[in-house]
Amino acid sequence: MQVLLSLLAAVLLGGCTSKPELAAAPRGPRPKFVSEAVDLGLFDSEGERNVVYEVRNEGDEVLRIERVDSTCGCAKPRFPKVLKPGERGEIVVGFAPEPVDAGLKVESVTVFTNARPAPYALQFQADLQPLLRLAPGTPLVVPIEPGGIASQMVALTPRRGTGIEVTAFESNDPRVTVEKVETGDGSFAVKLTVRSKGPGDFIAPLTIKATHPRLASLLYQVGAQAVRGPVSRPPVLKVPALSADAAGTAFPEVVVFARDRPLRVKSAKVLDPALEVTAVDPGERGTSVRLTYRGGWKRRGTRTTELVVETDHPAHPVLRVPIEVKVI
Fold first, then answer.
1. Torsion angles phi and psi, residue 18, rounded to 5
2. 67 plus 144 within the same structural domain
3. What is the side-by-side order of every strand in the sheet holding 31-33?
4. Within 10 A of 57 (CB to CB), how many other CB atoms are there?
5. What is the pLDDT of residues 65-120, one digit of tens each?
6. Is residue 214, in this structure, part of any structural domain at all?
7. How many CB atoms within 10 Å of residue 258?
């Protein structure tokens, strides 16, 4: 009898046990994208198209889209700033590739909202068919010995049926010369000759001209990359805007290193009394040289000078880094 009573009590107690409560659904705004990746397929580099991402607020609070960034340098994205619960909207990104862009191009779109987790990563891709195919493309990186000479062939092939003709390929830098090469098949090809005057990297701008409105003046960049001796990152220190009255302004740092051996910076100076070296800090990726404007410039316009760095490199101890400052 005692056993039966115990079993009955256990059944009764078990039947009274409450069921576990279900976890409450998360509250707040919840963006839901119909598609997070868009494939444009074959795409004419001359064309333009809007990439559209449809978004719906599946939350129970207002969704605020704070900003949308893209990696393609496209037109400014358009989007609704506010979506109420259940409301739909569109994020529109305009895509207009360069006329020489070729092959598969994958771009990212990042959406910043008041929802968590954030931000949201979207994507689109296109297989680009260029108006003018460049081989190799731009920027072209040419390895070169300090004080040496390097050559590179560049072929320019207009798309069939467009009637486009290349009329000129011009160098805007005396360190790079351009020589047209006769191919016999009617295509346009040139031989680039790059001359290094000493240690250090440099970037040379070239111009391609062709009989098409979008190819009237196309920038082609050649980067000369020194394989030995000291180099700097960036190869040219450019300050786009500096007030003549802004004494004490710090410039972006210049990192000095070598690709062929460990490098130690012994000294650094600027060939302009208005600028001074304020720090030389060695690190794992090179030595950081920091400059500061002391004041004293009176005239507006572009000023040029040099940062002269002395190193312990046995073959090329001195590096000269050009400096360009636009004084406003």
1. -75, 150
2. no
3. 31-33, 49-57, 88-95
4. 25
5. 999 999 887 778 999 999 999 999 999 999 989 899 999 999 999 999 999 887 99
6. yes
7. 21
Q: How far apart are CA 107 and CA 160, in angstroms?
A: 27
Element (H, E) at 6: helix 2-16
Q: Which of 226, 251, 266 is the last residue before a domain boundary?
A: 226
Phi, psi of 217 (to 5 degrees): -155, 95
Question: For the segment 129-172, what is each residue's pLDDT rounded down to a tens digit?
Answer: 999 999 999 999 999 999 999 999 999 999 988 899 999 999 98
Cβ-count burial 272-282 (b if 16+ within 10 Å, e if not): bebbebeeeee
What residues make up the domain containing 40?
31-129
Q: Domain boundary residue among 204, 226, 248?
A: 226
Dihedral sign, Cα of residue 83, residue 27, residue 66, residue 41: negative
- Give φ, ψ of 247 to 5 degrees: -65, 140
Neighbours of 43 (CB within 10 A): 19
Long-range CB pairs of 296-302 (<8 Å, 24+ gap) are 296/247, 297/244, 297/327, 298/244, 299/244, 299/327, 300/244, 300/327, 300/328, 301/326, 301/327, 302/326, 302/327
Locate 260 and state its tokens. 């062929």
CATH of the domain at 254: 2.60.40.10
Contact 50, 38 (CB under 8 A): no
Closest CA to 305 of 268, 279, 273, 267: 273
Q: What is the pTM of this model?
A: 0.73
Contact in structure between 142 and 152 (CB atoms under 8 Å): yes
